[in-house]
Amino acid sequence: MSKVIRETRVAYPFAIDERALTGETLILERAGKPVAAVIPIDDYARFVAWREHEQAQAWQTAQQQTMERDRAAFERLKPELLKTHLGKWVAIVDGALVDSDVDEDALVQRVYARYGYRTIFVEQVRQTPLVYEFSSPEVVR
Is 84 in a helix, a strand, or coil? Predict the structure, then answer.
C-alpha cells in the first residue's frame, strides 16, 4: 500500500529540495537515522510488479503444497475409504476427510459453503484410478 502526500499550502512533513530529485534514490533521515527513501516512480513501479509476482508465486506454491498434502492424506485413507465410500466423491481439507457425496458438484458446493473458497482435494473413491487417454501428442493443461 502506498501513501500519497500531495503538495498543499501546508508544508510537507519533511522538506525536500526538488533539485535533489534527480532520478536517484533520496534517503530521508530523522535525528540522523534513515526513516524512508524516495525513489524514482519507474523504480517503484518495477518494485510493485516484482512484489506482486513474488506474492503470486508464494500463493501458488502454498496451494500446490496443500494439494500434495491432501492427496497424500487421501492415499493414506484410501484403504478405509474403499470399504466405506466406494464410488462416492470425497473432500479432503487440511489432511482430513470432511464430506462425501455421490454428486461431485453438490459436494464441492457444500464444502465451499462450510470452509470458504479455498483449495480442497476432491477425488472419487475407486479401486483403480480413472485414466484419460488423449490421441493428441500435445500436452493438455
Answer: helix
Give the C-alpha separation, 31 to 49, whole Å: 33
pLDDT tens per residue, range 81-117: 999 999 999 999 999 999 999 999 999 999 999 999 9
Q: How far apart are CA 28 and CA 6, in angstroms?
A: 17
Instruction: Report whether 81 contacts 125 (CB < 8 A).
Output: yes
C-alpha 55/C-alpha 88 separation (Å) is 36
Which amino acid belongs to residue 62?
A
CB neighbour burial string for 113-127, b if at least 16 within 10 angstroms, e if fewer? eeeeeeebbbbebee
3-state secondary structure of 101: strand
**77 half-sphere exposure, CB direction, 13 A CA radius:** 22
Strands of the chain (E only): list them: 26-30, 33-38, 89-93, 96-101, 121-124
